[in-house]
Amino acid sequence: KLDIIIPVYNELKTIEECIKRVKQAPIQVDQLEIIISDNLSTDGTREFLKNIDDKNIKINFREKHSGKGANVRSALEFATGDIIIIQDADLEYNPKDYPEILRPFIEANADVVYGSRLTGAKYHRVFGILHLLANKILTWTANLLYDAILTDIETATKAFRREIITNLDLVSNGFEIEPEITAKLLKQKNLKIYEVPISHAARTYEEGKKVRWWHFFTSIWVLIKLRFT
Q1: 15: enclosing H helix or E strand
Q2: How far apart are CA 187 and CA 206, in angstroms?
Q3: Which residue ranges of the chain lie beneath pLDDT 50?
Q4: pLDDT in tens, 190-229
Q5: Environment class of residue 106 by beta-carbon count within 10 Å: exposed (0-12), middle (13-18) or buried (19+)?
Q6: At the N or C end, where does the chain have fewer CB atoms within 10 A?
Q7: Cβ proximity of 117 and 200 under 8 Å
Q8: Beta bridge partners of 113
Q9: Among 163, 136, 104, 158, which Cα is nearest to 219's?
């Protein structure tokens, strides 16, 4: 069974197409379940989700807006699949990449798979240099602190065996969920962690991008704090 977790906040323009792409992903699994957690959207996303009638889609409506991390953690409470993939609702990440993401689980008995945007093996939208530099510094810091060779720790597309992600005891409420996941995974030296290239269609702030400059500093702090605690 494969669970696709979709954390949502004010994504009315993209959520319907995102669900469609997930359902049409070129994968063969015994059961596919979509788990959507709405983080108190105010743009009509919540009303759209209330009208969904699909036995393979679970929807969680949060009563408090707390950020992406809290939303992901809420969605994980409903996950029962053998493998869990986190999928952003903004269409930056393409479910057509799921076969590549799932392959290490089948062929290499992976525990975790990261979908990397920075290998150059697949298409990506040309975007601002500051975002790339921030990601490179965060990834380099994580590799240095935790003795790893990842290329993209800030990717939103991550896949896990369910027992791995549910036992991490995640606590972050905001975008710090990404470095927290990476730090807690890399501290477990017995885990088999893989990376595969994925495509990426970045969007601008005008198009709805939510990550801000200060998240770089909070993410750095999480990496350092978790290394020594």
Answers
A1: helix 15-23
A2: 37
A3: none
A4: 999 999 999 998 866 666 666 666 789 999 999 999 999 8
A5: exposed
A6: C
A7: yes
A8: 159, 194
A9: 136
Predicted confidence at residue 120, as pLDDT, reads 83
CA angle 72, 217, 171 (to 5 degrees): 30
- Main-chain dihedrals φ then ψ at residue 24, nearest 5 degrees: -100, 5
Greatest alpha-carbon pair distance for the chain in Å reads 47
What's the gap between Cα 223 and its chain centre? 17
Provide the pLDDT for residue 131.
Answer: 83
User: In terms of Cα–Cα distance, which of 19, 68, 12 is closest to 45?
Assistant: 12
The DSSP letter of residue 57 is E
Locate 75 and state its tokens.
């969605």
Q: Helices 177-186 and 214-227: crossing angle, nearest 10°?
A: 20
What residues contact residue 222 under an 8 Å CB cut-off, 6+ apart?
172, 176, 179, 180, 183
As a whole number of angstroms, the distance between CA 106 and CA 40 comes to 37
Q: Which residues does 103 contact at the CB level (< 8 Å), separation at least 6?
A: 196
Cα–Cα distance list, 65 to 9, 62, 162, 178 (Å): 9, 7, 25, 18
129-146 vs 177-186: helix crossing angle, rounded to 10: 30
